[in-house]
Design brief:
The chain has one domain (3-128): Gcn5-related N-acetyltransferase (GNAT) (Aminopeptidase, 3-Layer(aba) Sandwich), CATH 3.40.630. 24% of the residues lie in helices and 33% in strands. The protein has helices at 3-10, 50-65, 75-83, and strands at 14-15, 18-26, 29-37, 40-41, 68-72, 87-88, 93-97, 100-103, 111-114, 126-128. The strands form 2 sheets. Strands 6-9-5-3-2-10-7-8 form an 8-stranded mixed β-sheet, covered by helices on one side. It has a two-stranded antiparallel sheet with strand order 1-4. Strand 7 and strand 8 (100-103) form a beta hairpin. Bound molecules: coenzyme A.
Amino acid sequence: MPPHASQARRGTLHRGHAVVQRRLLHGGHALRAGYVEAVAVSPAHRHGGVASAVMVELEDVVRGAYELGALGASDDGAGLHAARGWERWRGPTSVLSPAGTVRTPEDDGAVFVLPGPVALDLDGSLSCDWRDGDVW
Ligand SMILES: CC(C)(COP(=O)(O)OP(=O)(O)OC[C@H]1O[C@@H](n2cnc3c(N)ncnc32)[C@H](O)[C@@H]1OP(=O)(O)O)[C@@H](O)C(=O)NCCC(=O)NCCS
């Protein structure tokens, strides 16, 4: 195992990542999603495979327990996730807010999914459940 990968497992070069359960509405179904949060690597240790090693573990969690994976990608993260087989959601995104379904156009094109056993139409609509702060 490369040194950075083993350090990644010990949590010395990165912080804050997690898989949290969320519901995503798509195609008339409330899908149980493993939502990947906050993968970040300290600048001095980037491009050494740390995030990839972290993602291997998070993707195992997603595949083992959820119908799909999802995340809201930064510009930095988009390349990493696309290279790992995550697919960019092309359709309109929205959130199921306390006031009803509200479009989230600022997140269009930044949501990535890791498909699982459920068929997905990447050009269809995708809504996430509500939470405070950044909803995606
Ligand atoms: C995105 C981030 C986590 C990547 O961490 P990392 O440890 O450097 O990633 P890795 O070394 O595992 O990347 C593996 C490969 O993924 C691909 N990749 C990673 N970042 C990429 C990018 N911005 N654009 C294109 N491809 C990228 C490349 O193939 C890369 O190999 P390379 O480094 O030799 O080019 C890191 O840049 C970071 O913390 N950025 C700030 C926080 C952030 O935006 N997090 C992402 C939230 S979705």
